[in-house]
């Protein structure tokens, strides 16, 4: 670029192509400042920006996540009457989408007179990042309009299925990929492993993995991670050894997946051994993600002092996930002293994250320290922080249904609550006692029980029981961690109703069957 710029400066005459080459060169190099500066010179010259120059500078706004400059360039586009140009408008849609300004991306997308596959793929990908359900709706619309997806589009749709956890859609996408003869290369195959793992079927993920002719370290790591999501630590460890025997060297991601799997399956000795040898034997230097997994591993096992000592001995920068792992372990084992230390560190790093206040408040509530609970709620109010609401999703007849706590907005709400009350009666006769420790409000015991009865996952399961044929598993997804009372409730449902229930929460998968859970109550 230095030589190109030297020649460019020596030119007596410059046309739109010459300017575009320079703007594009800086954009490709990632030199955002020089790209903007050169584009400003274009605007000051007597050369009007065209549909070759503008996409380059718009891409720079996209790559730099510079929405302020992106809006400025949008104004330039309007001024020069280029909004109807397909290349320019597609670039703006892409820029707004990658900057997560979905409303503006959608408005431009809907105004476009013609939409090619690239534009559809960009918009589907944008929704996949923030609203996976809408992403799949848009994919259906694209198919209805006769636009045939390519492999890149299918990877985007596969990722949307993974985020939504929609098994029916996952199977449809898999069938389409097979029917169209797309090869399971590293990118598409790995995405499908992740999709099936996050839709609740580690067996289907393994089938895809075994069908792949070519696998790289990313593919192996994805399959190890899949076993980790489902609490199958032994299988993850076995696959790691198989990877090594195939001559594939592990990387940072491999060890994160492996340590995560050990943590969620209670393989303490194996996890610590992998952590000890990853640098010495494999040349992979531990970073904060690896330390977080080990803190989680020790914390879940009740070795809180060891976990805290490991944090204190760290020479790399600590982040919020590390302290969150320790705080979560303190909640499980009711260690108030360490919980306060972890929470103070979290609040220093992220004072505006409502989740940290909620987690510490729940720990105080479980200990009956209601004064502390009130204090943290007041702090949240003063700082205008809001708790993230809990949602549970269930897919029935190709449609996704969403529930919140105490939800009565569903068209079949009456039938859902009738099923739920009957279910609770059966469970109580079998010995179920609501665990009111999981209610973080200082109210009467009877009120606490009523609050537990209408948790979103219980409503979703009741709906599943009246909507999904007997013999088929009930699959639900939750945006937060499943609470201990709901975990016990679902175990008993699986035994008394003789139904398999698969729950995907914010941390992992739980497979309930015949009164037990795949996590072994270790989550």
Automatic annotation (TrEMBL):
UniProt keywords, alphabetically: Repeat
Listed GO biological process terms: chloroplast RNA processing; RNA modification
Each PPR repeat, start to end: 15-49, 85-119, 185-215, 216-250, 251-286
UniProt entry tagged with the keyword Glycosyltransferase: no
Residue ranges occupied by any DYW domain in the UniProt entry: 431-523
MF-aspect GO terms: RNA binding; zinc ion binding
UniProt xrefs under InterPro entries: DYW_dom, E2_motif, E_motif, PPR_At4g14850-like_plant, PPR_rpt, TPR-like_helical_dom_sf
Membership in a protein family: Belongs to the PPR family. PCMP-H subfamily.
Protein name: DYW domain-containing protein
């Amino acid at each position: 670029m230095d030589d190109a710029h030297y020649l460019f400066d020596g030119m007596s005459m410059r046309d739109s192509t010459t300017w575009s080459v320079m703007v594009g060169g800086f954009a490709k190099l990632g030199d955002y400042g020089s790209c903007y500066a050169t584009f400003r010179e274009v605007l000051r010259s007597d050369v009007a920006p065209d549909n070759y120059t503008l996409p380059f500078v718009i891409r720079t706004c996209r790559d730099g996540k510079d929405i302020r400059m992106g809006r400025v360039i949008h104004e330039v586009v309007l001024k020069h009457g280029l909004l109807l140009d397909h290349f320019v408008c597609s670039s703006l849609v892409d820029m707004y989408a990658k900057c997560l300004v979905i409303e503006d991306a959608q408005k431009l997308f809907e105004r476009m007179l013609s939409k090619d596959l690239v534009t559809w793929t960009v918009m589907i990908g944008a929704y996949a990042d923030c609203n996976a359900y809408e992403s799949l709706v848009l994919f259906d619309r694209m198919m209805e309009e006769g636009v045939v997806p390519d492999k890149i589009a299918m990877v985007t749709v596969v990722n949307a299925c993974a985020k939504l956890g929609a098994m029916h859609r996952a199977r449809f996408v898999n069938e389409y990929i097979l029917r169209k003869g797309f090869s399971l290369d590293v990118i598409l195959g790995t995405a499908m492993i992740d999709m099936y793992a996050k839709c609740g079927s580690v067996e289907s993920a393994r089938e895809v993995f075994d069908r792949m002719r070519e696998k790289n370290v990313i593919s192996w790591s994805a399959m190890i991670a899949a076993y980790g999501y489902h609490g199958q630590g032994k299988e993850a460890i076995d696959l790691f050894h198989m990877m090594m025997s195939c001559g594939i060297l592990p990387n940072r991601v491999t060890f994160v997946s492996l340590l995560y799997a050990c943590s969620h399956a209670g393989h303490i000795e194996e996890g610590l051994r992998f952590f000890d040898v990853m640098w010495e034997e494999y040349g992979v230097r531990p970073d904060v993600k690896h330390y977080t997994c080990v803190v989680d591993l020790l914390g879940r096992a009740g070795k809180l002092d060891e976990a805290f000592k490991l944090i204190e001995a760290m020479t790399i920068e600590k982040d919020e996930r590390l302290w969150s792992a320790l705080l979560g372990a303190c909640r499980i084992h009711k260690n108030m002293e360490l919980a306060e230390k972890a929470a103070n560190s979290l609040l220093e790093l992220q004072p505006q994250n409502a989740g940290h206040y909620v987690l510490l408040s729940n720990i105080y509530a479980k200990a009956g320290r209601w004064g502390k609970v009130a204090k943290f709620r007041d702090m949240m109010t003063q700082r205008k922080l809001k708790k993230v609401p809990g949602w549970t999703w269930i897919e029935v007849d190709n449609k996704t249904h969403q529930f919140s706590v105490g939800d009565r907005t569903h068209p079949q709400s009456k039938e859902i609550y009738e099923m739920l009350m009957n279910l609770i009666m059966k469970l109580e006769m079998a010995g179920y006692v609501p665990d009111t420790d999981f209610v973080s409000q200082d109210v009467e015991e009877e009120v606490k029980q009523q609050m537990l009865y209408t948790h979103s996952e219980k409503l979703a399961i009741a709906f599943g029981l009246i909507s999904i044929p007997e013999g088929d598993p009930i699959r639900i997804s939750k945006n937060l961690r499943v609470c201990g009372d709901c975990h016990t409730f679902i175990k008993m449902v699986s035994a008394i109703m003789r139904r398999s229930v698969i729950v995907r929460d914010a941390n992992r998968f739980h497979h309930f069957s015949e009164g037990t859970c795949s996590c072994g109550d270790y989550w």
